[in-house]
From TrEMBL, chain A:
Belongs to the UlaA family. This is Ascorbate-specific PTS system EIIC component. It is found in: Cell membrane. InterPro entries: Ascorbate-PTS_EIIC, PTS_sugar-sp_permease. The lineage of its organism: Bacteria, Pseudomonadati, Pseudomonadota, Betaproteobacteria, Neisseriales. The keyword Transmembrane applies. Homodimer. It is a multi-pass membrane protein. Keywords: Cell membrane, Membrane, Phosphotransferase system, Sugar transport, Transmembrane, Transmembrane helix, Transport. The chain crosses the membrane at residues 41-62, 94-111, 117-138, 145-164, 176-198, 219-243, 263-286, 306-331, 337-357, 369-395. GO terms for cellular component: plasma membrane. GO terms for biological process: phosphoenolpyruvate-dependent sugar phosphotransferase system. It comes from Amantichitinum ursilacus. The phosphoenolpyruvate-dependent sugar phosphotransferase system (sugar PTS), a major carbohydrate active transport system, catalyzes the phosphorylation of incoming sugar substrates concomitantly with their translocation across the cell membrane. The enzyme II UlaABC PTS system is involved in ascorbate transport. The gene is ulaA.
Automatic annotation (TrEMBL), chain B:
SUPFAM superfamilies: PTS system IIB component-like (SSF52794). Its EC number is 2.7.1.69. Residues 1-88 form the PTS EIIB type-2 domain. PROSITE patterns: PTS_EIIB_TYPE_2. GO terms for molecular function: protein-N(PI)-phosphohistidine-sugar phosphotransferase activity. This is Ascorbate-specific phosphotransferase enzyme IIB component. One of its GO terms (biological process) is phosphoenolpyruvate-dependent sugar phosphotransferase system.
């Protein structure tokens, strides 16, 4: 019997299903919804793992080709990928830290003036995963790991929205919601850069941005395109001989590269589908509980919530951030760090948001330079973070957004000092 | 009636808008079904109405489906004003 309970409590898929079940019961959902919601959440976890399996093969091939081409380790920052990989090892700890973090968030919002409820469920999951990975690499395990991790997660869930709130108010022109996205340090940097160098008056919204760039919003398409270009460039440098003799089993090296790029994108798509199912029941439950317990709670939302307030800054910020990432790609190896190949998803979402914040404080110039600084940060910081992740850091991927890196680096520094 | 909420990744902002839409529907006493997806998936799904931020929804607006957009995904007054004409 004890073994039975222990097995349940240490299987992350079932564990997260139980949390969803409790959330649904607390909200007095209909029986059919309770059953469906619980099953969907568990399926989400299983799908997440399946996506990781597909992705890891293509990632490994990219690493080998990149290594052969440049004699350097190339790393693609992708939150979904690193989380899916590290969940295989730390799934149940991550689930406990995530749920405890949400409880601490509720408690802090109830008791302190920081009334933020962090509703970006996938970022809660990613941050839980980062904390567990870094603390495990530092030698922490078991109950202390879960307690410390949960407390830190809960703190971050109210502190980061609070730090960005002065600028978020400027972006939205109201106080109706906060930003709940762990790219905050990049956005704060962008807003400060905008303040210092920006000219008031000319906003990004006064200029015309070509409509043809709109298809970039379709992340699956734009990711397949950029991964394709990356794979082809790296394969051309590595040369056909190496790829066709040791990797592709004789298949033409360009055909093989394009296929691998598509496999990578399919893997991320599957992982995203898994994450979507995983959080779809837990987030509404979390919000339902907070609505009942916390008067005047302020929702902290995912970053695209600010996009409609400056749609041009979204496109300009993405491109400017990507340029920053390309520049940083040449700087990090010179500093003895891993090469961070600019990842599309981090640059799109955080670059766009940095553009919106830079525009709010410094107009067009603020958007361009603010997002550029964000782009440099999300290459440089993940390169440093890689050295803190232990064995997981060798898989060829890492966390993208700034707060994961800043928190991971600081935490690892503190743990080493002890 | 089936309403599909769309955002870039189908993870965060579409889920939040879905929660707000459900509250509004309850208020309007509508029994419409609501779900959320990313842009890529939404293109191959069917629904009576696709709802999201304008720059996302523009990608779906090819004349083959009904679309509507909101600016502030937490503003229930705006959501209500956008939804009401479609519910009649």
């Amino acid at each position: 019997m004890i073994k039975f309970i222990l097995d349940i409590l240490s299987d992350p898929a079932i564990l997260i299903g139980i949390f969803a079940l409790l959330g649904l019961l607390l909200q007095k959902a209909k029986v059919a919804d309770v059953v469906a919601g619980t099953i969907k959440t568990i399926l989400g976890f299983v799908i997440l793992g399946a996506g990781a399996q597909i992705l890891v093969g293509s990632l490994d091939i990219f690493r080998q080709v990149f290594d052969h081409a440049f004699g350097l380790k190339g790393t693609i920052p992708n939150n979904e990928a690193i989380v899916a990989l590290s969940m295989k090892q730390f799934g149940s700890q991550t689930a406990y830290v995530m749920i405890l973090g949400m409880l601490v968030n509720l408690l802090l919002a109830r008791l302190t003036p920081l009334k933020y409820i962090f509703l970006t469920g996938h970022h809660t999951l990613f941050m839980a995963c980062l904390l567990v990975a870094v603390m495990s690499a530092g030698g922490m395990t078991g109950v202390p790991l879960v307690l410390v991790g949960g407390a830190m997660l809960g703190l971050l869930m109210v502190i980061m929205p609070a730090l960005t709130q002065p600028f978020t108010r400027k972006v939205t022109g109201s106080d109706s919601f906060a930003l709940g996205h762990f790219g905050s340090f990049g956005y704060i940097a962008a807003a400060l850069v905008g303040k210092v160098i920006g000219k008031k008056g000319r906003s990004t919204e006064d200029i015309k941005v070509p409509e043809s760039l709109r298809f970039l919003r379709d992340t699956s398409i734009s990711m397949a395109l950029t991964m394709g270009i990356l794979f082809i460039v790296v394969s051309l440098v590595a040369g056909p001989t190496f790829i066709e003799t040791s990797l592709s089993g004789g298949v033409n090296f360009l055909v093989f590269s394009i296929k691998q790029a598509l496999v990578f994108s399919a893997g991320v798509y599957i992982i995203l589908a898994g994450v979507r199912l995983l959080i779809a029941e837990i987030v509404p439950a979390f919000k339902g509980i907070s609505d009942k317990l916390i008067p005047n709670a302020k929702p902290a939302l995912d970053c695209p919530a600010v996009f409609p307030f400056a749609p041009n800054a979204v496109v300009i910020g993405f491109m400017s951030s990507f340029v920053g990432g390309l520049v940083a790609m040449f700087i990090t190896p010179a500093l003895g760090l891993a090469v961070i190949v600019p990842g599309l998803i981090p640059h799109f979402f955080t670059g766009a948001t940095a553009g919106v914040y830079g525009n709010a404080t410094g107009g067009l110039r603020g958007a361009v330079f603010g997002a550029f600084v964000n782009g440099v940060l999300i290459s440089f910081l993940p390169a440093v973070l890689l050295t803190c992740l232990g064995a997981i850091g060798f898989a060829g991927t890492t966390f993208g957004d700034t707060d994961f890196s800043v928190v991971g680096i600081l935490l690892s520094f503190v743990m080493r000092a002890h | 009636m089936k309403i599909m909420i769309v955002c870039g990744n189908g993870l965060g902002s579409s889920l939040m808008l879905e929660m707000a839409v459900k509250d509004v529907l309850k208020e309007l006493k509508s029994d419409a079904q609501v779900s959320h997806a990313d842009l890529f998936t939404a293109k191959s799904e069917s629904a009576d109405l696709f709802l999201g931020a304008r720059e996302i929804i523009d990608n779906l607006d090819d004349g083959s489906r009904k679309v509507a957009s909101v600016k502030n995904i937490m503003d229930k007054v705006e959501i209500k004003a956008v939804l009401e004409p479609f519910l009649k």
